[in-house]
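Lab notebook: predicted structure, single chain.

Context: the supervisor wants predicted structures on file for every construct in the current expression panel, including those that have not yet been purified. This is the next one on the list. No modifications to the sequence; it matches the entry in the shared construct table.
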Amino acid sequence: MRHAIVRIAALFMAACLATACAPRLSLLGGGDTEPLAEIVLEGEAREKMLILPLTGMITDRPSEGMLRTRPSLLEEVASRLNRAALDPDVRAVVLKVDSPGGTVVASDILTDELERFREHTGKRLVAAMMGVAASGGYMACLPAERIVAHPSAVTGSVGTIMILPNVSGLMGKLGVTAEVAKSGARKDMGSPLRAPDPEDQALFQSMVEDMNARFLERVRVRRGLSGDVLAEVATARVYTAGQALRLGLVDAVGNLRAAMAQARELAGLPEDARVVVYRRTEYGDDTVYNIRSGAPAGDVWAGLGGLSLPHGAGFYHLWSPGAP
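Prediction complete. Output recorded below exactly as produced.
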C-alpha cells in the first residue's frame, strides 16, 4: 500500500513538472482543449433551442491551474455564440445565468457580444436568472428579449466598485518602507504601498462614477426605466425576483422551464424542438441543469485560487458577497 501511494505521488509530481512544457495536461483525458460538440438533451424536431450557461465570475482571463489552463468565461460564451450563429436550425438561445458579475471590461464585452449575436442573426434570446444574476451578471441579461427570474433568484446590484488592496498599515507595523521615484504626483495612485490621499480617492471615485454611468444608461435604454425607478436601482442594492419584477428589471418570474417556454413561443418552435448544449465532454444522463462543459468531473484540477484573494485590483461590476 505504501509503495502504491509513493508511485501515485511520484506520478503526480512528474505531471506537475511536465506542465512547463505541457500546460494543458489532463491526467484523465478530455477537458477544455477539446472542440465543442453539440449534445441533444431533449426533442427530435429539426429546429433547435440552445441552452447556454453563464456561470461564475465574468472575466477575460483564463483560469490557471497546476495541470492546465481553463478558458475564461468570456471565451467560453463567445465560442458558443459563434457556433450557434452558424447553425440555421438554432432558432432560440436561453442564456442560463448564475453569476455575481465580474470585471468592468469583461462584462461590457460579453454584453456587446450578446447584443451583436441577437442583432446579426435574428435568433431569439431569452435570459433565465438562476441563483444569482447580479451586477455584470444582470448586465449580460439586458440584450435578451425577455428576462425570466427564478422565484429564488437574487438580482440587481447595478453598480461599479473598485477593489484596491492596501498593505501600508502592515508595512508600518513591520517597520518596512518603500522608496518610490515618480515622474508625476499621481503616478503611484493606487499603490498598495501607501495610503491613498483625498485627491487619489476623489479621482478613483470619479472613474467609478464614469464607468457606472454607462452601466445605468444600458439599463435605462434596455428596460425603459423612469427617473425615480432608475434612481432606486442606482443605489446598487440587490433584489428578490418579485421585487425586480415590480421595478421592471425582469419580465417574468419563473423557473428554467418557463424561460424555455418563452423562447419556444418567441421563435415559433414546435413542442418537440431539440434542446441542445455545446460541450467539450459528453456526460451520461445529461440534462439542462448540468453547468459543466469541459473537463470530466474526475479530472485533476489543482488550481491555487483558494490560497489567494478572489479578485485582483481593478474595476468591477460585481456583487462581492455572491462571488465564487
